Each structure stands twice: as structure tokens, then as C-alpha cells.
Amino acid sequence: MSERIQVHHDAAAFLAVARAALELAPALNNLALGTALRLARGAPPAPTPEPPCFFSVHDEAGACVGGAVFGGRGTLDLAQLPTDTAGALAIAVAREVVNLRAVIGPTAAAEAFTHAWPLLRSGHATLARRLRAFEASSVTDPARAPGHMRPATEADRALLQDWVVAFTRETALPDDHDPRQAADAMLDQQRAWVWDDGRAVALAVLGRDLGDGVSIGPVYTPPDSRGHGYASSLVAQLAARELATRRRYCCLFTDLANPLTDRLYLRLGFVAVGDLLDLRFS
């Protein structure tokens, strides 16, 4: 195997090598970075079909310049990496991973990897989503919606389950998690927040803990409550809350199939930092 790819079976060992490289673009790399940090902190691992595996990518001088994380459920999360290393990375992944069903990562890296993968395994890649990564170190809410933000409570559990199921269906997310179990975890871990205008009308969730940053998502408004700015105000206040405490930045993804969300987050003070592809193998 090329010395430019190092395989790690321990999240802490991977981060010791790759964290500095991934944190050069933390919003763009937050999928791989967030998963590795969660496992390195000793979070109880959920049962997965395969063990997690981590790949650090190095330049010819040996410096780490990127990485990838396989969380065990079929999806490879790519960070930024030189495209000329994609073939070597694909070889390393093929040796470690039995069932790779999807890859998500920065556009150039994802395209290079999916061009190399069919040379090693049968099947081809199909584009599921084009995503855009946004980051903010300060936010504003130019048109606050009626109502207020509050943490989700036990009384919201059934509603949150329904909303996460609907969000998963609308956004065509990989089916590697049970959405109702995901909703329960969001509530039990006190990461779910709702906008309340006489009733809960929108949801935003604190996602991956990135140390001095945090991701926000999913963000969801049911169809009968859309058009009132609820989600916009909820994201603005949730991000402001995090930035006022211990976070240096907040980040999130949008689906480029819905350009309205890009304009929404730009108005709140988020800045686009790069695009990603979500590709599925058949």
C-alpha cells in the first residue's frame, strides 16, 4: 500500500495524525472530523455492521494533508485531500471495508474517489445530493419570526420522531440510521430545539461537536408552517447561543436543489466555504 495512506483502527490515533489538517477547513470537513471526535471521546458506539476505520492521507514529505472516516454503517466521509491520492485511498478502503454504499465529501475529492472505486469493486456511483457547507462566527436575525426558541421536551417526542422521518424522506438521506431512533437520541442528549409559536413549528438540532465549533442540523419546518421565517429565527438564535458561550464557529449544510436555503443562511451571516457531493454505489 502506498505510504501516502495510513490506516487507523483507533479514532484518537487518527486524530493525533490528521486533526490539524482537517481543522484547516472544519466546516467542509465536519463529517469526518465530527465522527472521529465523537468516537475518540469514548462515546458509546452504536452497533454497526462493520467496525469504524480511519484513513489519513499524506504528502510525499509525510505531512498529513487530508483523511477519510468510515463509521461502520456503509458511508465513507471524505475530508479535503489531494485528488492524486484518491486511487491509493480507494485501494486502502477496499482492503478494510466490506460494504461501501456511499461516499460524501468535497466535490473534487468525492469525484476522484468514485472514479477510482469501480476499478476495485463492481458497481457505479449515482449522485444523490449536491451540498454546500456554510460557516458563521457571528449571526444576525434580520426578520425575527413570531414566537420563541425553547429546548424540545418529552412532550415533543412523537412530533420530533415524525419530523425526523419526514426530513429523512424529503432529503433522501442515506438509510444507515433509523430516523425515529435518531430523533430519540437528539431529545435524550438535549440537542433538539424547537421554535414555539403557540405550538412547536420548527426544529433545529445541535449536531457534531467539533470542539471549538458545532454543526447544526437537521433543520426542519413541516409544510403547514413554512413561509413564516420560523426556521431562520431558530437557527439564528441557536447559533447565537452557541457562539456566546464556548464556540468559535457554527456550521451547516444546505442542499443545492433548494437555493432558498442558501439565501436564508447568507442573510443570517453564514458564509459558503465549499461544495460537497453525496454519491451512492450500486
Highlighted features:
twelve-stranded mixed beta sheet; 8 helices; alpha+beta; Aminopeptidase; globular; 282 residues; 2 domains; single chain; 34% helix
Task: Explain this structure.
With 282 residues, the chain is α+β, with helices and mostly antiparallel strands. It folds into two domains: 5-123; 136-274, Aminopeptidase. 34% of the residues lie in helices and 29% in strands. The protein has a twelve-stranded mixed β-sheet, with helices on both faces. β3 and β4 (75-78) form a beta hairpin. The chain is globular.
Q: Helix count?
A: 8
**Number of separate strands:** 12
Total number of domains? 2
Shape: globular
CATH class of the largest domain: Alpha Beta
Instruction: Identify the strand order in the major beta sheet.
Output: 1-2-3-4-5-12-6-11-10-9-8-7
The named CATH superfamily of the largest domain: Gcn5-related N-acetyltransferase (GNAT)
Low confidence ranges = none
- What is the overall pLDDT average? 93
Spatial separation of the terminal alpha carbons: 26 Å
The CATH topology of the largest domain turns out to be Aminopeptidase
Write a concise synopsis of the structure shown.
The chain has about 280 residues and is α+β, with helices and mostly antiparallel strands. A twelve-stranded mixed β-sheet has the order 1-2-3-4-5-12-6-11-10-9-8-7, sandwiched between helices. Helix 1 (about 10-20) packs antiparallel against helix 2 (about 30-40), helix 3 packs across helix 4 (about 105-115) and helix 5 crosses helix 6 (about 180-190).
Secondary structure blueprint with pairings:
Blueprint: E1 5-8, H1 11-22, H2 30-40, E2 53-58, E3 64-70, E4 75-78, H3 86-96, E5 102-106, H4 107-116, E6 125-136, E7 148-151, H5 157-171, H6 179-188, E8 192-196, E9 200-209, E10 213-220, H7 230-245, E11 249-255, H8 259-268, E12 271-281
Parallel strand pairs: 4-5, 10-11
Antiparallel strand pairs: 1-2, 2-3, 3-4, 5-12, 6-11, 6-12, 7-8, 8-9, 9-10
